Amino acid sequence: MDDYWILLSFGPQGWSDDIAAGVLVTVSLALATLPLGLALGFFIALAKQSSEPSMRLAANIYTTIFRGLPELLTLFLVYFGAQIGVQQFVRLFNPESTVEINSFVAGMIALGVVFSSFASEVFLSAFRAIPHGQYEGGYAVGLTKFQTMRKVILPQLVRIALPGLSNLWLILLKDTALVSVIGLSDIIRQSGIAARVTKEAFLFFGIACLLYLALAMLSSVAFSMIERWTGKTVEQR
Fold it and tell me: Cα(118)–Cα(132) distance, rounded to whole angstroms?
C-alpha cells in the first residue's frame, strides 16, 4: 500500500503531477473546442433552414460527412491530411519551408467539426420548436431580424437546446481521449505512460476512470445551474 501512495504522490517519484497536467490538457481542449463547435453548429442550423437551396445542400452534406465518419478518422484527416495540404500550399511560395500542425489545434479542429455536426441538429430541432408567431411578434413591435433573433429567439433557443447540448458536451469530454494517439499529453496518454513504466495498469487506468467520472459529475452540476438560470431568464422576459 505504501508503494501505491508513493506512485500517486507529487514529485520525482510520483505520477500525480503528470496526470494533473493531463487533466489540464483534457479540460483545456474541451473548453477550447466548445465555442468553435457551438458557433459552427448554430450557423449550420441556420443554413439548413435557409430559403437558398445551395446553402441547405451544403449544410446537409457537411453534417452527413462528419456525423458519418468515426471521430478518430476525422482526427487523422485533420492532423495528417491538413498538414500535408498546408505544407504543399506553403511550398508553392517557399519550396524549402516545412509546416507542422500543433496536435492541440488539430484536436480542437477535428473535435470541433464533429461536435458542430451534431450540435446543428440540436439547434435545428430547437428552432423548429419555437412557434413562427414569435418571429412575427418581434417584427410587429419594430424589431429588425437581428434584434428579433437576439432578444426573442435566442433566449428560448438556448433553453430548449441546452439538454441536448449538455449530452454533446459529455461526449466531447470523452472524445478528447482520442488526441492521445497524435501525441497530446491528456489524461489517457499520461495514465498510459505511468502504467507502462510502473507496470500498474489497473491502478493508473482506474485513476483515469475516476477523473473522467469526476469531470462528468462537475459538468452535470454546471449544466443544471445553467438550466435553472436560463429558465429564470426566459420567465423574466
Answer: 24
Q: Please calculate the CA angle 103-29-174 and round it to the nearest 5 degrees.
A: 105
Q: Give the residue carrying C-alpha cell 519551408.
A: 97
Q: What is the pLDDT of residues 186-208, one digit of tens each?
A: 899 999 988 898 888 888 899 99
Grid cell, residue 7, equals: 506512485
Cell matching residue 173: 469530454
pLDDT at 64: 93
Taking only Cα atoms into account, the Rg of the chain, rounded to an integer number of angstroms, comes to: 22
Instruction: Kindly indicate the confidence band of residue 172, based on its pLDDT and cuts at 50, 70 and 90.
Output: very high
Distances in Å between the Cα of 93 and the Cα atoms of 85, 100, 102, 220, 237 are 14, 16, 22, 49, 56
pLDDT tens readout for residues 40-59: 999 999 999 888 889 999 99
Q: Which residue has the cell 478528447?
A: 176
Q: What is the pTM of this model?
A: 0.86
Query: Which residues lie closer than 8 Å to 214 by C-beta, 6 or more apart?
Result: none
Residue type, 217: M
Residue 21: phi, psi to the nearest 5?
A: -65, -35
